[in-house]
# Entry
Amino acid sequence: MFECVVNVSEGRDLAVLDELSLASGPSLRDRHHDPFHHRAVYTLINDRDRLLVDVRRLVATGLEVLDLRRHHGVHPRFGAVDVVPFVALDPESPADACALRDETAHWIASELATPVYRYGPLANGAVRSLPEVRRRARDGLAPDEGPPATETRGAVAVGCRAILVAWNLWLSGVSMDEARELARFVRGPAVRALAFDLGDRVQVSCNLIDPLSVGPSSVYDAVAATMGAGRIERAELVGLIPAALLKREAPERWGQLGIGPALTIESRTARA
# Structure
């Protein structure tokens, strides 16, 4: 089985989010949306052929109904359908996930006339990260396929990668400068982190890119020990986690960390 975690630039209009959920078909296992980021994350999991059908329907619908000209949110983005990463849940199939990426990228560029950037392992042997794509696209990196970006659709980053965990800490009593320092403090080879201003609170938003090495509790404890007078209001999982990661965290901390058995990949696919 494969996972595809589609990030779209809409987090407020429930009718639109429901339309995108419907387009995702039986592969949809989770939806997370946030009005401050103005972003939604659709987690699709299925066998290869069914997943491709549902990913294509979701991407096509998103590019039809979303308009970047009306989008304002704190999260970085360059596309209405912003990120489409494929993940091999069978550890022996990472090359197959990259094949799904390449097939999907070509389809988006040719059939939907939308520019695409690839990330992950590339045909030339290089490995391009999503942050690199975002940074270099702003500096004039040409799309890998497709026409120039439009104001309404932007471009789509299509990738293949290992499992990662998107996970946020909501903080109070902390300034944005302090939140940026906390994000810098926890950032490293296994953790990507950004700080966001969410009105009366701030957030340290993390991608745990090697979650079995550095998991939620490690980041939580590092922030708690460093933040001074502020406090962690709550932790928030975006999407799903593998059961292997849940087992590595103490059960008495699951609530504190915003994780649990119902939020595992295995629990959602078992009900398929």
Summary: The radius of gyration is 18 Å. Residues 48-65 form the longest helix (18 residues). The CA atoms of residues 117 and 143 lie 5 Å apart. The chain has two domains: 2-160, 165-270.
